[in-house]
Amino acid sequence: xxxxxxxxxxxxxxxxxxxxxxxxxxxxxxxxxxxxxxxxxxxxxxxxxxxxxxxxxxxxxxxxxxxxxxxxxxxxxxxxxxxxxxxxxxxxxxxxxxxxxxxxxxxxxxxxxxxxxxxxxxxxxxxxxxxxxxxxxxxxxxxxx
Length: 145
Fold this sequence. Notes:
Shape: globular
Number of strands: 3
CATH superfamily: Ankyrin repeat-containing domain
Order of helices and strands: HEHHEEHHHHHH
Radius of gyration: 15 Å
Strand order of the largest sheet: 1-2-3
CATH class: Mainly Alpha
Structural class: mainly alpha
């Protein structure tokens, strides 16, 4: 019981810290991101930004997380090819967990090839596969088995 409480407490603190220190994404950065054009993306984000957590509304996302969530395939490919951390957790979610939630099987396969860990857990103890099942993303459950 002590280990469970300690684990939850440490994980909760890390999520809070992620939000507290997450850099606010600017309107210009978000517009460049939404275009899915790599050149516009490169003008607004440096390589140092690739593994940062950015505050978007009330949550925190890495750029790779955002590219998965919004299906920005050009930016996703650019980030993966330029060594963005495929296991970076922002807002309690890894890119693979976001792929599981939103049914992005093709992106999940690429993440797995690049070393994404299927066994990472969020603050609720859920893996990417658990999230895919929860959100009824059948195409992902076989990819994440």
